[in-house]
């Protein structure tokens, strides 16, 4: 048996394959094989924001480490007016731009169907799916597709700090960090974009050290416990009393939403 190569955080630009990732996690077959837990958690958080935050306080959302995926924008399409999708890997940004310009054949309808199922109501028609995707394109056009690096003080250099209403990051930090000190630092970097009182949404793998990014290309993960993540959030000005979290032990993931402290 060949030994699998373990890719490291510094290998993303060279080794991450957006097509393999989408195929493995978001193709019709993958979605039917086992639903992505993100597609359960994010619509629930979106609904909470819709019901509890006044419209003028939820104008913008920044997804850090979106990869080639647009599901965050799909889930929050009725919550905010502008979505910024960002990633470190230029190949991912190219796929996102192709989606925006409708030149990428990738089919997001299976994902939208699952999001709609979580949201409740009747199964959507094909026309409804198209309307949802078009509306989502509109809010990403108002925001943008931008490069970012969680190791930078200003993660997305084109965006000012302390301005965004909702910062979201799913399965990114544990991919990008070698050790816990780096993780804490990156957590501070990403929440710096959030305005005081803004909402932070995090999806994280728990207690694992590697994942398959598609076609058996394995990347390392920083081993994290729930306690470590809470400690990092506390150091990054997140109000720990405000944390609403879902821990899915079987899946080895945690999703949470919390507020940034007012000062
Ligand atoms: C496991 S994928 C998650 C993608 C997407 N958020 C999702 O939920 O499917 C990890 C992502 O983190 C990005 N990433 C890795 N290092 C990064 C860094 N230093 N700064 C920003 N993003 C990074 C990768 O390019 C990749 O898109």
TrEMBL record:
Q: Which UniProt keywords apply?
A: Methyltransferase, S-adenosyl-L-methionine, Transferase
Query: What Gene3D superfamilies does the entry give?
Result: Vaccinia Virus protein VP39 (3.40.50.150)
The molecular function GO annotations come to: N-methyltransferase activity
**Which top-rank group of organisms is this from?**
Eukaryota
List where the protein spans the membrane.
Answer: none
Q: Name one GO cellular component term.
A: cytosol
Which Gene Ontology BP terms does the record give? methylation
Similarity remark: Belongs to the class I-like SAM-binding methyltransferase superfamily. NNMT/PNMT/TEMT family.
Identification of the protein by name: Uncharacterized protein
From the broadest rank down, the organism's phylogenetic lineage runs:
Eukaryota, Metazoa, Ecdysozoa, Nematoda, Chromadorea
